[in-house]
Amino acid sequence: MEKKDPFRVEREGHIAWLILDRPEKRNSMGLNFYDELGKHFKAFDEDPDVRVVVMRAEGKSFTSGTDLSELATFYGQKNAGQREDLRLTIRNAQEGMDWVERCRKPVIAAVHGHCLGGGVDLLSACDIRIASRDAVFSIREVRVAFIADVGTLQRLPHIIGHGWFRDLALTGRDFGAEEALKMGFITGIYDDREALVAGAKKLAEQIASYSPLAVQGTKDVFLYSRDKGIHAGLEYTAQKNAAVVPSEDMIEAAMAFMEKRAPVYKGK
Predict the structure, then answer these.
(1) What is the DSSP string of 96-135?
(2) CATH number of the domain at 7-208, please?
(3) Which secondary-structure segment (H or E) carries 190?
(4) pLDDT in tens, 117-165
(5) What is the DSSP secondary structure assignment for residue 14, as one 8-state letter?
(6) Which residue of 37, 108, 163, 198 is most buried, as measured by CB atoms within 10 A?
């Protein structure tokens, strides 16, 4: 019997590891994937002990993308009510992805093997993406006759620019880690999975060592500025800083500098 939750959560200090844990299905993304994804990220957002989330996967692939066997259940839907059900199903999946982006805690994706179709949607909602040298990506949807519908088409152009994006979205071609690094989709390549996980942990620990107020505020501001524009973003930044400066974390930063020690931030 299939596990209800396709994920496993592990905690390490202020880091939460969200592990895709359906290796026997190459971590394919069924309908419950999006429900559970949203639940986990809502919980991470609300947990003050979590400062960074890292996503990785078990098995040979990060994810093979949409579970096409489940998609087949929608074939043959012809009446208006059935099509409305499909629209609501897609919107629910989009909401699950939205929680990844909306989570106040930075999200790092550590990718190995194949990351196809919906996997690229998932990565596009993350803040930082790194990969092992064997990683293979693809916006696969055009190759199986449908439109990517859970975030790639909306988010990825902001990450890699429209030139690269349109090439990848319209051809559906595979691209590897070196090309992904060249276009700025990922920011680091590691020789194997062990090095990848170690690299993700190092990144997460660095971010988690900073003031949560500053880190989460920075994520909030860059998403707001992307969606609202430069001038609205500047006004929003001024309001954010006016609300939190000075803070206990800021005073701790100054004291640590004068005392020549590492600061210890509490998010206050």
Answers:
(1) HHHHHHH-SS-EEEEE-SEEETHHHHHHHTSSEEEEETT-
(2) 3.90.226.10
(3) strand 189-190
(4) 999 999 999 999 999 999 999 999 999 888 999 999 999 999 999 999 9
(5) T
(6) 37
